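ingest -> validate -> predict -> emit
validate: passed (alphabet ok, no gaps, 403 aa)
predict: started
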Amino acid sequence: MKKVLTIALMVLVCVWTSAQKADDLALTPPMGWNSWNTFGTNINEHLVKDIADAFVDLGLKDAGFEYLVLDDGWMAMERDENYNLVADPVKFPNGMKSVVDYVHSKGLKFGIYNCAGSKTCAGYPGSRGFEYQDAKLYAEWGVDFLKYDWCNTENLNAKGAYQTMRDALHATGRPIIFSICEWGDNEPWKWGEEMGHMWRVTGDIINCWDCTVGHGTWSSLGVWPIIKLRKDIRKHTGPGHWNDFDMMEVGNGMTVAEDRVHFAMWSMLASPLIMGNDLRSASKETIEILTNKEVIEVNQDKLGIQAYCHSDEGDIEIWAKPLNDGEWAFAFINMSDKAIDLNHDWAWHPVKDDLSNRSLEVNNKVYKVRDLYSHKDLGLTKTKLKGTIGAHDVLMLRLIPTE
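emit:
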């Protein structure tokens, strides 16, 4: 009997220790769309199909966006008689598998939401105690991405709870991106690489440049409070494991200039690029920002190094990001409410990233300067960089070594 128990225990240990997140996923920051910022729980089958169609029709799929993620509110208020989650029969009369199949038919991937607690943040059934059952159901539907929230998690350990769902996803055998969403409260950047592919570093975003909106026990943060909230986390990001600065608010009410900054900074920070607007009514300017392949290439650079703030003196902040092949990306952001003239001498502003041990070698090399929003070459680094940056706008550059 002891021998049998010992063998059984060894098998369990082997299964436990072999569990891991899916390999070879999210080698660059995931790109997609999430329903929450604009629609909350007001989601349905027609919306999903419309958004999937928009991915293709508006050129977003061609630009690299691939994950369509349904957030909270997709399920019925109760599990069925077998304790399985059920799609809300009014919102999704043909069931979730039909919706997933439609998204896949467009050459896209499908993502879904649940929560580590007993209930989701909106009060629907959570996965606590049902992790393996829920993961199996998602795999049967063909889900490619799981966003896993942190509401109603009394007495749970964050790392342990996310490990349980990681192992449940692994047990299905289906490659599913695991998005950790516990708002940075338990410093997921320190343990998230082992558990998932991306992790939120802040609470929820809101569509403003620089504001904080209180909701009693928590607050929504604007673009710049999110950017500046965390210190010393850039060393934890890289291929297969990303600091997630939340879904984007591009197209949701800020100025076009502020949207340019927002998209530029999420790309510089190597954050997942998850859209949060209504694509069906998006303006031409919004789509031009979201489909800017030159900016997206910075986000998708295979080195996966998160930008750092090189200078924040005066009204202009300068952010720098080392890229592959000795190239660099820079974002000059006008933080003021009026246009500012720029007169930047590359030689007088040495740039070195201590994390990657990479330097901008302007004394030994000449770099071509490329404006990523105007899609124009601006000259070489051996001359001063001159121009005007509008209020709350950005000059985003790529520096390319010349022969």
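The longest helix spans residues 2-18.
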